[in-house]
Structures are given as structure tokens and as C-alpha cells.
Amino acid sequence: MTATSATREQQVEPANGSWHLALLTKTELGRRNRRPVDTVGLIVGAAVVGLSAVIVSSAPKQDHEVAHALMTILGWAGGVWRAAFVALLVLALLVAADVLLQKRWDLARDLLVTVVLLFGVATLLGGSVTSNWALVERHPLADWGYPDLRLALATAVLVVVGPELMRPVRLFAIWLVPFAAVGAIAFAAALPSAVLAALSLGLACAALVRLAFGTAAGVPPTDDVRADLTVLGTDVADLRPSLQQRIGAAEYVGHDTAGSPLKVRLLGRDAQDTQRWARRWRALAYRDPPRSVVGVGRLEQVEHEALATLMAAQAGVQAPEVVTAALGPSGNALVVTRQPELEPLETLPADQVGDGLLGQLWGEVGRVQAAGISHNRLNASNVLVVDGAPMLVDWSAATLGAPQSALDIDVAELLVACTVLVGHDRALQSAIAAGWREAIGRSLPYLQRAALTPHLRDLAHSHEVDLKQLRAAAAAATGQDAPEVAPLRRIRPQDVVLTAALVLGAYLLISKLASIGFGTIAHELRQADIAWVVVALLLAQTTFVPSGISIRGAVMTPLPLLPCVVLQSAIKFINLTVPSSAGRIGMNLRFLQRLGTPLPQAVAAGTVDDAAETIVQAALFLLVIPFVHVNLQTNKFHGVGPNSRLLLALVAGLAVGIALVLAVPRFRAKIVPPLRQAVAGLWDVARNRGKRLELFGGNIGSELLYAISLGATCLAYGVHLNIGELVFVNTAASVLSSLIPVPGGIGAAEASLSAGLIALGVDPSQAFAIAITQRLCTFYLPPIWGYFSLRWLTHKGYV
Q1: Continuous segment of H or E residues that includes residue 107
Q2: pLDDT tens profile 154-183
Q3: Within 10 A of 493 (CB to CB), how many other CB atoms are there?
Q4: For residue 450, what are the β-bridge partners?
Q5: What pLDDT, in 10s, does the model give residues 53-91?
Q6: Averaged pLDDT, 679-684
Q7: What sections of 629-720 are H helices per DSSP?
């Protein structure tokens, strides 16, 4: 913050002959934006609230012990703690009162919604967890129960209004909140669980309101931006925040001293973090074509935007004139362009968008693509109509030297944007009349929601644009058959929800069957020897090497070993959301094709490797059966083990399934060709000694390493099993969980491991703890580095 702004914030104003210290900064229209980082605050707050609820319900004794310890250590300064607690409440009341006195109705609305939301959630939380439906006590310093409503309200008020508080007040509040929270425990006004719930609940509710209505955080005051521009040699006559702020940056409009219109795009630390998280989420959730890698630093980002804008203008595109792109003295990066303050093309009604204007727009895009530039946000929100001609703006996400797929996605984006404007008939006619028939044909696989920017995705939904219908109409207009959409999505939010639901369902099912609860499981997990857990985790990762060798053996094409090994790590990430072995087969197909394997071999390879793994697992299972004593009639599962009737039912079901495959053409067409393909692939591999060793040897090595890793996990809980027993449990669990089509075998794998261990005489609580730990080592933790493996493969062009 500059010295000028610091001085401004400390100004006092006379009122009725006395001095009044202002708490809020000067209001500015348009100084509001949504910040994705508030999503993190909401998630973290909700998670900590859940943790506090577990503490209250499952560990009340420990909760009181921690409170007693803090009172013993800090209770001697009870007056200080009470003063801090009261100061926090008074500060929150003064801030709320100042909001009303200064008639800041936007902040007043935010506070009202926050208070109502917080009070409702706190009442439900207190009533459901501790049966305390009355969270308000008469004495302001008494124990108000769980959660502490006073602390929650004060926290929420300061988080909501914080970005618009004077800097000294804001810093004082940042220090006062944790100090008062500790003080509430020290003078017995609240238990640690109540304080933890209050802070996290206040943060979560405030973050939710900030996401709904926006916040001034991340949009610096105009005077600070003006001071930065002056230092950088750009004098402005007037400047104000843009009324249309975009997530990830702060935008300002105004004029220079010569009267020319200016647009200022500012990236502060908050904007940098927002864009970094947005890029990571995009890479996590979508299979995007290679982009220009913009540096994570703010300066590199504005320099990239300026370069892309200059190169577009050099190619003859009507683009803004770049004034400067630099890092200001306050640490904010700014890019300044000369462009008029006009409403974008998407705001015009359809009758004001002529075919001539659309033709000109396609002509501008033609010059962009001829220069090898992908705009990456090529929709009507980034098109201005200047003197009757289109101007393309906002080149911050542009890719220089873009691949054909990125250019095709741009065409798809613009076609959907034009459809929103004038309907798909006029949109297609104008594009084809401008000579884009072939390009539209190439873009057909990208006419899908996943290829669109979020802004255009929302517009298409609100205007009821049917992308399937548009794809069919575009195919008909170009004389093609409508192709399948390109697979762009990796992870969807519903996949994450499904995974969490499956984990919860697995816990409820297994704990019910084995008659064990969370307390028993938590006790067993606390007893684990961390050293053996680390050994098990490391051993589980060594399975990538033999698995990589086995995929080399599934095709006749020579493959480098390192990418094959890294592929196995990346598959761990993919398998989080793709049922059973489908994710591995799909990744293998893409990988093998990129390395030059013919399509028929690549299609067969995944099936061949999967079939070889099944053969190896069955062979190992049968091999160790004579050496393993198994008690399937364990009373821990109350007789749910297999019996003769169940076996007969399974045999009958298998016979019926085979009969259906042979008798019904539709089933036969789906099952028999892949089966023949797998057998043919196995035969080709079986005739080559080296490939035989790689395929079957790799799978054998992988299974044995998984079994040894399971043995290390067992040792972490004091359970000793021999190699035969470990192979039995591991292979049986793998086969059983692969038969259940849920993502990654979640729930099925844990149940199978637990059942196998119990059948060998392991205590149910220990068996479940071992199963959870083993799955952490082999499934839940590997996707973390699997994500980076996938990025490496993508960067190297292997997938």
C-alpha cells in the first residue's frame, strides 16, 4: 500500500465539533468481485465444523481436559482475556453500526444475510449435536454452549466487512479474533470445540455470502491504482472500477490526459492465486489441448497478455493498443490498453446484429487463426463493435503457436456465441458464407459444454441452446455425419460427490457387518506403527515398475520404460472416477496410439493386459489355497460367508449369463468381439518369448509387491501373515472388487480386504483398520502424485 493511501486511511473527520474515527474506507461503485479463494474458506470452514461436531459427540472428556489445561496455564490473566473477548464483540457491533450510519446498504444486506444464515445453521448444529436449541444466555460472558454464537457472529461480521475496513482496524481485527477465541476458553466462557465451531462457522457463512454477492477484496482502491500508473509513466485524467468485473483480475476504465479511453487490468496477489487455482482445476478436470504456459507470476501474465495483443494487431486484427504492461510499486501487475468503454456484442439484440457484422467477425477470427493464435475465450463478451466493425479484446488467455485442436475449440466457442445472439440458422449461414465450412466440420467434436468457457456455458443454458441440435445442424450444413464428442472431461463435481458417498457407504456397511464403530476403528488406527505404514506406502508405489513392464509386453511395438511406469501412476488418478478397469484401458489406448502403436493393437492391448492380470490373479489364488487355512464361517459376519446354496446360485447365474451371450445377438455383439480380440492378442504375445516374460512377469511382480505391501500394513498393527496368506487376501480382494462396477472399487475393495483378513482369524477392528490403511497406500494417496504424473505425460505428449 502506498504512503498516500496509508495517510488517507488514517484521516479523521470532524463531526458536530468532535473527531470521528471512520472504520470503513470510501465506497466505490463497481468495487466488488467474486473470489474462488472464498470457496476454499467455505470448504475448510464446513470441514472444521464437522470435526468439532465429532469432538463434541465422541470425545467430550478430552474436550474438557484441553479446556482445563488452558485455564490452568492462562487463567491467571482472566481480566485480560475478558477484555479481549468484550473488545471483539464491541468491535463487531461498531462495524455493523458504522455500516448503517454510512448508509452502505450493500454491506448491510450482506450482514443481514450472514446473520440469518449463521443463526439458522448454528441453531440446527447445536440442537442436533448437543440438544441445545437455545444458544443465547442472559449473561454475556457465560458459557453459551456449542457452538459459541457470540464468537461466530463477530467473526462473520469482520470477515464480511473486512475488505472495506480501514487498514489499522482490519489489522487490529485480525489479531483480536484469535486472541479473544483463546480468551473465551481461558476464562471458561466456551469449550475448545465450541470455539472451533464458532470460528469455522463464521468463516464458512461469511465466505458463502461473499461468493453470492462479491467482495471488495482483490479490487484495490482507485487512488492506489492511479498512483501506480503515475509511477509507470501513464497519467490518467479519470479512473474508476469497471462495473463488469471478471473473476481473476480487477478492471478499471477511464481516460488519459489526452482524452483517449483506457482499460486497466490489474493482477494483485489475490488475482494471481485465483488464476493459479483456476488453471490447476482446469488441468485437473479437463483434457485441454496444449496452451501457452503463462508464468505463475503476475508480471509474466500481463506481459503475455500484452504480447498476444500486439501479435494479433500485427496480424491485421482489430485489437486494443497496448500502452504498458509492468509491475507497479505496490506489487500489483498492470496491463493498460486503449479501448473504448462499450457494451460487448453479446448485449445487443438480434435485430441489431447484421449478417455483415457477423461476416466481419469471422474475417477477424480468420486473421487470428492464420497467425496461429488461439484466443481461448472467443465469445461475444470479448467483442466490441467500434465504428461498425468488431474489435477482439481480452487476450489474457491466448495461446501463441496454438495446436489445431485449440483453434477448432475457438471456432466451436464462437459458433455457440453467435447462436446465442442470432440463432443457429443465421449463425451457421454467416459462418459458411464467410468460408468456414471446413473449419466448422473440424469443430463438431468440440460443440459440447466441456469445450466452452464457463461464461458462455451459462449463456447457452439460459438461452436454451441445445448443443446436440446445434451439432446436428452444423453437421448437416457441412455435409457430414455428426461425430462423437471429444473426451474433454476428466473429473466432474458429481464424481467427487459419488466417491465421497461410496467411502461413507463402505464404512457404514463394513462397520455394521463386523459390529464395530468409529471409536473402535479410530483406536486401532492410532495404534498403527507409522514406520511400517511408510514402508507399505513405498512398497505400493514400486508396483508401478512391473505394471509398466506388463503394458510393454501387451503390444509388439517397442515402448520406452519410463513413460510406461509414469503411466501407471497417472492411472491411479484416473481410476478415482472411472469404474473398474475401464479407466486403465482408456488411458492405455491413448498412450499407445501416441507412441505409434497401430489402432487394432492399441485397442487389444488394454484388454490383453487386463486378461493377463486376471489369469495371474486366478493362478496365484489357486496356487496358495492349499497352504492357507481359511475360516469362512466366521461369526463376526454372522454367517454371511458363502454356502452351498450360494455357490449353486452363482453357478446357475453364470450358466444363464453364458446362455444369454450365445443366444441374444445384441449381447453377443458386445461381448464376443472384445473377447476374441483379447484371445488373439494373447496368442500374438504368447508366441514371443520376450513379450511373454514382460506381460506375465510384470503382472506377477505387481501382485507379489502388492501382497508384500499388505504384509507391511499388517505388521503396522501387529498382525503377522505369511506370503501365501497375503497373496490369498490380496488376489481375492482384487478379483471380487473388480466385479463390482464402482469407481476404483471404493467400498468393495475395503470390504473384500476386511473379509479376507477376518477369514484368516484377524480381529474385525484390526482387519478394517488394515484395509483402510492399505487402501490409503494403494488407492487414496497415489492420485496425489498421479495428477503430476498425468501432467508430465501430457506435457511430453504421451497422452
Answers
A1: helix 105-130
A2: 999 999 998 888 888 888 888 989 888 888
A3: 8
A4: none
A5: 878 877 788 888 888 888 888 878 878 888 988 999 999
A6: 60
A7: 644-663, 665-686, 689-716
Q: What is the rounded CA–CA span in Å between residue 23 and residue 755? A: 63
Q: Cell numbers at residue 31, please?
A: 468495487
Q: In which element (H, E) is residue 152 found? A: helix 149-161
Q: How many Cα atoms sit within 13 Å of 465 on the Cβ side?
A: 29
* Stretch 19-24: mean pLDDT: 63
Q: Which three cell numbers stand for residue 10?
A: 488514517
The torsion region of residue 284 among left (phi > 0), alpha (psi -120 to 50) and beta comes to: alpha
- Beta-bridged to residue 296, according to DSSP, are none
At 598, is the secondary structure helix, strand, or coil?
Answer: coil
Q: Which 8-state DSSP code applies to residue 778? A: I
Rounded to whole angstroms, the Cα distance separating 781 from 624 reads: 29
Grid cell of 485 as nine digits: 464428442
**How is residue 382 annotated by DSSP?**
G
- For residue 738, give the nearest of 604, 570, 618, 589 by alpha carbon: 618
Burial of 270: CB neighbours in 10 Å, binned 0-12, 13-18, 19+: buried
User: What is the average pLDDT across 444-465?
Assistant: 84
| Angstrom distance (rounded) from CA 326 to CA 494 | 41
Letter for the amino acid at 224?
A: D
pLDDT band at 487 (very low <50, low <70, confident <90, very high): low
C-alpha cell at 646: 450360494
Q: 5-14, 172-181, 650-659: which range is least confident on average?
A: 5-14
CA–CA gap between residue 752 and residue 614 (Å, rounded): 16
Exposed (0-12), middle (13-18) or buried (19+): which is 279, by Cβ within 10 Å?
A: middle
Pairing assessment for the beta strands 13-15 and 18-20 based on DSSP bridges = antiparallel
Is the Cβ–Cβ distance between 601 and 555 less than 8 Å? yes
Dihedral-angle region of residue 150 (phi above 0 means left; psi in -120 to 50 means alpha; beta otherwise): alpha
- pTM (predicted TM-score): 0.58
User: Residue 308, SS3?
Assistant: helix
